[in-house]
């Protein structure tokens, strides 16, 4: 893709994350690098169509919502295509007559969990290498997280940087930077990195939920406990990127004979640390296998 003017953007499968990213680029934080002239979103049902139309009512002059039966039309009219459908639907989407032809020459951004750039190439070529012979696929695989809804996502991207043009890399980075932070990582470490971004938050929320339950059991109202825990946790987490190693922080907090060391020892007795490690490694294993399933 060599277009440098305002972009037409298609979101194929405009669910929660697709909607968050679309909202980000329609009202970008960085208004100087790129502009969205038009956004075309596709969804599976009439109910979802109404939801997305309502979501973007203030941008109605630039937004068009279609049913998934018109995916080919959406891609044909777009410069950039965001593939945000469920991974299990990928073959069904690409096998629609005309979809692969429509994708040629476009920048493909995929946020389908576990789907490698090699699998995207296979899908786009129909498994016969035809598209690869004609033109290298301009594809960027990314894992954002749900914090994109409040522009606080950490989005990890990977691509064949020998094939991806400089302009397309800039477009991909710009898209995800409108909903938070973004960085490129090698695909060799993408799966474990992606689950840290995509899954770690849910694991930490499980821990937060347990803390809140304990506070409620001891007589603290849940809204008050939530405020206490979240403000404390957010402040503590910000100390880590500032250069404080988690284990050092634990040592500082856990004074001799105090409450924190008792709590930490109980967590160690229950195997919480190894459970978190095993959970993330299991998620990474699943991510690696999804392209083959």
TrEMBL record:
Name of the protein: Pyrroline-5-carboxylate reductase
Domain Pyrroline-5-carboxylate reductase dimerisation: 187-290
Keyword NADP attributed: yes
InterPro entries: 6-PGluconate_DH-like_C_sf, NAD(P)-bd_dom_sf, P5C_Rdtase_cat_N, P5CR_dimer, Pyrroline-COOH_reductase
Binding residues annotated for NADP(+), in chain numbering: 12-17
Family label: Belongs to the pyrroline-5-carboxylate reductase family.
Sites where the protein binds NADPH: 71
BP term (GO), one: L-proline biosynthetic process
Secreted keyword on record: no
Keyword entries, A-Z: NADP, Oxidoreductase
Occurrences of domain Pyrroline-5-carboxylate reductase catalytic N-terminal (ranges): 9-114
GO MF terms, alphabetically ordered: pyrroline-5-carboxylate reductase activity
Any single Pfam family the record assigns to this protein: F420_oxidored
């Amino acid at each position: 893709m060599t277009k440098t003017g305002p972009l037409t953007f298609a979101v194929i499968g405009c669910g929660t994350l697709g909607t968050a990213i679309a909202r980000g680029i329609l009202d970008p934080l960085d208004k100087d690098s790129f502009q969205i002239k038009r956004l075309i979103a596709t969804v599976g049902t009439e109910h979802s169509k109404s939801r997305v139309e309502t979501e973007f009512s203030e941008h109605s002059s630039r937004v068009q919502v279609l049913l998934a039966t018109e995916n080919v039309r959406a891609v044909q009219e777009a410069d950039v295509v965001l593939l945000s459908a469920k991974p299990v639907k990928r073959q069904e989407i690409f096998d629609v007559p005309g979809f692969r032809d429509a994708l040629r020459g476009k920048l493909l951004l995929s946020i389908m969990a576990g789907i490698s750039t090699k699998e995207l190439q296979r899908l786009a070529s129909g498994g016969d290498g035809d598209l690869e012979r004609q033109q290298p696929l301009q594809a960027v695989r990314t894992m954002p997280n749900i914090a994109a809804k409040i522009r606080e996502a950490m989005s990890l991207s990977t691509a064949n940087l020998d094939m991806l043009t400089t302009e397309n890399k800039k477009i991909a980075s710009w898209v995800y930077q409108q909903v938070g932070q973004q960085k490129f990582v090698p695909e060799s470490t993408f799966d474990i990195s992606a689950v840290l971004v995509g899954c770690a938050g849910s694991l930490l929320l499980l821990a937060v939920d347990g803390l809140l339950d304990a506070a409620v059991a001891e007589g603290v109202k849940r809204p008050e406990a939530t405020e206490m825990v979240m403000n404390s946790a957010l402040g503590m987490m910000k100390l880590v990127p500032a250069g404080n190693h988690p284990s050092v922080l634990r040592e500082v907090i856990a004074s001799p004979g105090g409450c924190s060391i008792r709590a930490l020892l109980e967590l160690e007795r229950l195997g919480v640390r190894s459970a978190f490690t095993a959970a993330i490694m299991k998620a990474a294993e699943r991510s690696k296998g999804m392209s083959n399933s």
